[in-house]
Amino acid sequence: ESHVCVSKHNRPELTDSYTEDTWIKLRDAVSAIQNSTSIKYNLEELYQAVENLCSYKVSPVLYKQLRQVCEDHIQAQIHQFREYPSSSLDSLSFLKRMNRCWQDHCSQTIMIRSIFLFLDRTYILQNSLLPSIWDTGLELFRTHIVSDGAVQSRTVEGILEQIERERNGETVDRSLLRSLLGMLSDLQVYKDSFEQRFLTETNRLYAAEGQRLMQERDYLHHVSRRLEEENDRVISYLDQSTQKPLIATVEKQLLGEHMNAILQKGLWMLLDENRVCELTLLYELLSKVKGGLMTLLQAWRDYIKSFGGEIVSSPEKDKELVQELLDFKDKMDHVTQRCFQRNDNFINAMKEAFENFINKRPNKPAELIAKYVDSKLRAGNKEATEEELERILDKIMIIFRFIHGKDVFEAFYKKDLAKRLLVGKSASVDAEKSMLSKLKHECGAAFTSKLEGMFKDMELSKDIMIQFKQVCVRRYILLNTQSLCTSALGNYLPFFSTLHLSGSMVKLQEVCKLFYLGKHSGRKLQWQPTLGHAVLKTEFKEGKKELQVSLFQTLVLLMFNESDEYSVEEIRTATGIEDGELKRTLQSLACGKARVLNKMPRGKDVEDADRFHFNSDFTHKLFRIKINQIQMKETVSVASVQFILL
Questions:
Q1: Of 18, 96, 155, 244, which is the most exposed, with the fewest CB atoms less than 10 Å away?
Q2: Distance of CA 283 to the CA centre of its chain
Q3: Tell me: the pLDDT tens digits for 554-603?
Q4: What is the largest CA-CA distance in the chain?
Q5: How far apart are CA 25 and CA 44, in angstroms?
Q6: What's 161-210 look like in SS3?
Q7: Nearest Cα to 198, choosing from 253, 167, 150, 156?
Q8: What pLDDT score was predicted for residue 65?
Q9: pLDDT of res. 262
Q10: d(Cα 45, Cα 10) in Å, to the nearest integer?
Q11: pLDDT category, 156, cuts 50, 70, 90?
Q12: pTM (2 d.p.)
């Protein structure tokens, strides 16, 4: 914008002739601008002429005349649009003509305003009811061009057609759309003339698209891509005010209307296949829809209950139950952290679901968790380092918190701990105490007091054995005993009072008993043969071997020093071993991998009519062979005695 300051002393004298001539000059200049022809007069001269007229108080007349000239010109422009061919093929050229007319109008208005700037800044500015020259230009264009029903309809339809083409993958002139939509916005008809129809068409398009594509595997990626495209349209050419209702429309039609179907069809599959990216996208998309996260939360809870319920309720999978629970918990934790943004509601729902399904089968999970802990804390477990074992125990404690039958866990844990301590099979005292510390923190001191007492008993037992060996050395028998207080173990461990030990064993037991009671008067010492074991030196045709066997197996094998063959009844009478335990013992010696006895007739099961004889042809690549005892589904035990017969 430029203006020229002319001294009042150079102002010409006001006459009707001067006013008329000056206006004609100004009108010609405006006409030249509107027709894109050259202006005959200097712009500074024209500006000065306007200032002179305004100084002579003829501003009202000048404003009225200027408005009329502009209106006449704009009214003449409408014909080119009304007469334009109505073929759909010409819609783009129609839009281009409309845009050219608008761009010309804007540039012309700017030029005219620069000439009449003095009028705009004095008279018009001082009269609040009068629109500025620029606003007058907008008003006239709106009234005579855009507000024409046919012209407006065709313009909006042409814009919508171009947007639809772009949505279908075609390339369109975005700068053209940006200019035309900016025109509608400047003319304050954007919402009424365009936005409402645009949102209606958007709703129709995506409603149909949602129905058509919802079953496709990559539907979530399609929705995400559509949302990105619509946001890009807002940035590129739509008015910013359209963004919120536009995105809401897309989300409603592509997500809200199909939310339950998406979750029913896809969530469980995504979780089963651990598709982290799609789960993250699902969470992000549903978080934008009203009620979306609550619906996802319920579906997530249902999935955990269903999947976890299958793990817990399958007895044939009991051996893998705890490991599967740990793996499942790790997987769900990963989903909440990576996909669900560590949302507390989802974390709490997961905990509730785990507690729900894990207690559908009373007591068994508690028992199996105790057994799993035993397998990890038992000597010979080479699966994990100390650090890895500590992490495993931490994970087990998370599962432990969910079970209601903690007293069942305690019972089995006590028994397994006693066995590990009595037979010296604990992998690490530090790991044992770490587990006790975790249980104490979780359940209180009362829960672990008896368990902690076991460790004190074992320390006392070691001291007693050191003293015993110092006074009771035997060249032909080495004896090692461990003792635990029965009050720490409960009343669920069996004792075998009918067992017939060899004379040397009985004699050594009495020696040990007298020594122990001499140290601890008032106590009663009970022996637990189920935990006893021995190493037997045996001669086969292949050569000498050492057999590492249980006390029951020892009693059976020692009989074959006296005779080569025995019946089941003869062995039962000689050893005093209970019938079920005896059959399992004979089965381990004659039907397992290391068959040091032969059974007649052959077969996997032991019957009362079977007979057994020593297998002198037994061969094995190892010198010391451990023959495992066949266990019942549940075994119980309390104190041990270990013999090494040399």
A1: 244
A2: 9
A3: 888 888 888 888 998 989 988 888 888 888 888 888 888 888 898 898 88
A4: 155
A5: 13
A6: HHHHHHHCCCCCCHHHHHHHHHHHHHCCCHHHHHHHHHHHHHHHHHHHHH
A7: 156
A8: 94
A9: 85
A10: 13
A11: very high
A12: 0.68
Peptide bond just before 315 cis, omega within 30 deg: no
Rounded-to-integer distance, Cα 315 and Cα 318, Å: 5
Q: How far apart are CA 333 and CA 315, in angstroms?
A: 26
Residue type, 75: Q
The secondary structure of 501-540 as a DSSP string is --HHHHHHHHHHHHHHHHHSTT------GGG-EEEEEEEE
Q: Regarding beta strands 477-482 and 640-645, do their DSSP bridges make them parallel or antiparallel, or are they unpaired?
A: antiparallel
Question: 610-641 pLDDT, tens per residue?
Answer: 899 998 888 888 888 888 877 665 433 333 33
Q: What is the DSSP string of 308-331?
A: HHHHHT-GGGGGGHHHHHHHHHHH
DSSP secondary structure letter of residue 643: E
Rounded distance between C-alpha atoms, residue 516 and residue 504, angstroms: 18
Whether the per-residue pLDDT at 323 is higher than 50: the answer is yes
The first and second tokens of residue 399, run together, are: 């599962």
Strands (E), 595-646: 597-600, 611-614, 624-626, 640-645
Res 30: pLDDT: 93
Q: Which of 540, 574, 568, 538 is nearest to 555 (CA)?
A: 574
In contact, 323 and 311? CB cutoff 8 Å: no
For residue 549, the surrounding DSSP H or E stretch is strand 543-550
Cβ contact 220:282 at 8 Å? yes
Per the CB < 8 A criterion, the answer to whether 631 and 415 are in contact is no
Q: How far apart are CA 130 and CA 63, in angstroms?
A: 10
